[in-house]
Specification:
The protein is an alpha/beta fold and 283 residues long. It has a single domain, classed as Alpha-Beta Barrel (TIM Barrel). The protein contains 10 helices and 10 strands. The protein has an 8-stranded parallel β-barrel, surrounded by 6 helices. Strands 1-2 form a two-stranded antiparallel sheet. InterPro entries: DHP_synth-like (IPR045031), DHP_synth_dom (IPR006390), Dihydropteroate_synth-like_sf (IPR011005), Pterin-binding_dom (IPR000489). It comes from Singulisphaera sp. Ch08.
Amino acid sequence: MMRTWEARGRLVLADQVPRVMGIVNVTPDSFSDGGRAEALDDAVEQGVRLVDEGAAILDIGGESSRPGSEPVSLEEELRRVIPVVKALAERVKVPISVDTTKAEVARQALWAGAAIVNDISALGSDQELTRVVVEAGAGVVLMHMQGVPRTMQVDPRYNDVVAEVLEFLERRIDWAESMGIPRSRVAIDPGIGFGKSIEHNLLILQNINRFANLGCAVLIGTSRKGVLGVLTGRPVNERGAATVASSLAAAVGGANVVRVHDVAPMVDAIKVWTAIRGWDEVR
């Protein structure tokens, strides 16, 4: 489904072809065990490589949100994220997203050249973050999560997961609009793997079209997640094919952005699919 998504005066989406968001994690276990400077260089080079492979957006995060993870301090997240954002903003032309729930991290990342704030709390954990997004004219990703990362996968329960996630996201879209963030700057993410069982995740992926009907760009992130491990029996580093399959299924259902670690195979899959669809954008 065709959607537009704007961020700081730039069109992130302007047609029906899904975009690939490449993940650059700058958590301690993401890169080499060398010094901080070496880790910075690794992160920047990874970001450049992902863009070369076809990423239309880069998403940079310095605080893990995997199940069971603990929060990091503001100071540490700033040390991890801001140098990477600044360096990549000087080397790539695609929009940069910062994956954070903290207003100060977002503020400094936007100053450094980012255009999008990807908030797993849907602007719910730091009230100042909304002001930062409004004042910068930034794009924003509003994600659904039941609970917090440390405990979110401990027996998540819903009466109707699709209806409840839809209702939550619609409320957050309305709230963002009331604060001065138009729908054209909002993308929504139903939060695969964030406080959801295997069945919950599959139900959401089967109903992407319902999320697309909310009138915002839809972002889906299944990359390497536990649901894929359960379905395939494969460890984290062997879930590339499952990531492509689930992300492409989401795109078929109406997702506009797919967030992945391995960009090249995802870009190839979308190119083939869009060619089969006969969309002029890929000819």
